[in-house]
């Protein structure tokens, strides 16, 4: 596994900087890449940055996705299963919107958010950031400082890309592919997540053959900021599990 790599995909309205606290805590030496989510919205292999990277990766990758990035990680293993050794999905889901008894975001809310984005992107991003933090019952984080940095970084992104990201979240339903995933899938989710309910993670744990769910009690959607040590520990554990498996087969 030493010659493999980590591939990080961030969530909506974020960029590679959101992974900095996590990467600093990973207790293993392994190369890593970040793929911009707005470069992975196209299903065509030649236009999808994740698919292109997986085609080049010969030793196998661990894809780490947060929120929207978790959906893209699932698509990555479906596209090239032989190029992926494991997934780490943080605050993730296989379908963003609710459907029947399946939990998720109300479709009308997502449509309204996309409409408001054209008129007042900063207000939409700030409201989203507040939902990401949640009540923070168990974690200490300076809300105003977090929101200022979150909004400032998000405003550097193209509004059209943000709108396309919301369209992606509205349309994607990856539940049918879950039973076919044959790699270890490590799930981390806060039970106070106000963006993606923890029941979405429980659904994936139930349907994916090799899935394991760790719950952060009191945790919000913003685990990369509020529980980055837990995220890093999960990634480190995934790397070591694969290294041990490689040693047993040699």
What can you see in these coordinates?
The protein has a single domain, classed as Rossmann fold. It has a six-stranded parallel β-sheet, with helices on both faces. The radius of gyration is 17 Å and the shape is globular. The protein has helices spanning about 20-25, 50-55, 70-80, 105-120, 120-135, 145-155, 160-170, 200-205, 225, 230-250; strands at about 5-10, 30-35, 60-65, 85-90, 185-190, 210-215. By secondary structure, it is α/β, with parallel strands linked by helices. Helix 5 crosses helix 6 (about 145-155). The mean pLDDT is about 95. The chain has ten helices and six strands, in the order E-H-E-H-E-H-E-H-H-H-H-E-H-E-H-H.
In short:
The protein is of the alpha/beta class and 250 residues long. It has ten helices and six strands, in the order βαβαβαβααααβαβαα. It starts with a strand and ends with a helix.
């Amino acid at each position: 596994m030493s010659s493999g790599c980590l591939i990080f995909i961030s969530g909506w309205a974020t960029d590679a900087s959101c992974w900095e606290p996590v990467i600093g805590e990973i207790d293993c030496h392994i190369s890593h890449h970040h793929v911009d989510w707005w470069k992975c919205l196209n299903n065509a292999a030649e236009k999808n940055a994740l698919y292109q990277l997986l085609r080049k990766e010969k030793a196998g990758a661990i894809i780490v996705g947060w929120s929207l990035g978790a959906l893209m990680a699932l698509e990555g293993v479906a596209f090239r299963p032989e190029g992926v050794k494991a997934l780490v999905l943080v605050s993730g889901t296989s379908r963003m919107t609710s459907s029947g008894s399946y939990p998720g975001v109300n479709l009308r809310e997502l449509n309204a958010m996309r409409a408001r984005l054209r008129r007042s992107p900063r207000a939409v991003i700030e409201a989203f950031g507040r939902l990401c933090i949640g009540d923070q019952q168990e974690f200490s984080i300076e809300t105003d400082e977090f929101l200022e940095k979150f909004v400032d970084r998000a405003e550097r992104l193209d509004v059209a890309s943000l709108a396309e990201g919301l369209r992606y979240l509205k349309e994607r339903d990856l539940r049918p592919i879950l039973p076919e995933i044959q790699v270890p899938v490590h799930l981390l989710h806060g039970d106070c997540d106000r963006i993606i309910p923890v029941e979405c993670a429980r659904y994936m744990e139930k349907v994916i053959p090799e899935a394991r769910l760790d719950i952060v009690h009191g945790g919000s959607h913003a685990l990369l900021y509020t529980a980055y040590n837990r995220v890093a520990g999960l990634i480190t554990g995934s790397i070591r599990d694969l290294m041990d498996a490689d040693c047993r087969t040699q």
